[in-house]
Amino acid sequence: MEEVRQVGVVGCGVMGAGIVDVCAQAGLDVRVVVSARPSVDRARARVLKSVDNRVRKGLLSEQDRDALLERVSFTDDFAELRDRQFVVEAVPEDEEAKRLVLKEVDAVVESDDAVIASTTSSIPITALARGVERPERVIGAHFFNPAPAMRLVELTAGLLTAQDARVRTEAFVTEVLGKRVVWCQDRAGFVVNSLLVPYLLSGIRMLESGFAAAEDIDAGMELGCAHPMGPLRLCDLIGLDVVTAVARAMYEEYKEPLYSPPSLLLRMVDAGLLGRKTGRGFHDYRR
Ligand code: 3HC
User: Fold this and answer.
1) Which Gene Ontology biological process is one annotated for this entry (predicted)?
2) N or C: which end of the chain has fewer CB within 10 A?
């Protein structure tokens, strides 16, 4: 089995940038594909921000940061993924957009041993691999936010994923990236979001109904249950647009009211109050 040394990441939003950081930190050569030239600068800035986070915390020296960044290159040309052994798709949580990217990646990546992983947080992998020429290479590898700090990656094989791709992915994530993996069946939401999303939405419904204030809902879970962040602060970290997309995908699959996004969440997304990334969500980060 060929050792994974060359990785591709498609999409460089909050999750994509974190995954690029994780891969470069592991000493890999990382090629980042974004949709258009002007996005390259934004992508580079996001990766730098993620890496600088560890410099600020004293976890990484400036010299190591510079060496890490040298291992990362940016392009808007999918063809530059042709020699990659592992490619992570990290574009927004939209089934059609993800499917198109997976098709494009599959068309250019040459090695039959390569793995094409989607970091979807909720959409079944078998559905995403529809239309892909070699679906046996497609797998789900769901990273958590912030990717450099969170130790878990959820793995999901689609109905057509080859056993070899499963073995290679688990070995790569555990031995090279140093994360713990959990496996689950190919159902919307996988393990973590099946448990987390109803909880986050309950927190939002509590606020929406006037049951308690945002600070108190968060303090309740932070101080009462030792969670690092309460549900509303965690929504702000994940991004309210992402929480909405994940909830919708789960509602679409199960038709359970507990996955239905509350009106307050939908209105906040309409208003562009997406959380930390836009400066305001349930809390204000502009100071
Ligand atoms: N490397 C890079 N970025 C890091 C980082 C690291 N080691 N540690 C934190 N960050 C980033 C965060 O993304 C955030 O970014 P910002 O600059 O854009 O605001 C900021 O640093 C927050 O961290 P702070 O420095 O303010 O605070 P901490 O260092 O105390 O961060 C934490 C702690 C690791 C974020 C901790 O609060 C925590 O564990 N929170 C819970 C996180 C969690 O539950 N994540 C899972 C979300 S669910 C998910 O991702 C699934 C999805 O499908 C919905």
Assistant:
1) fatty acid beta-oxidation
2) C
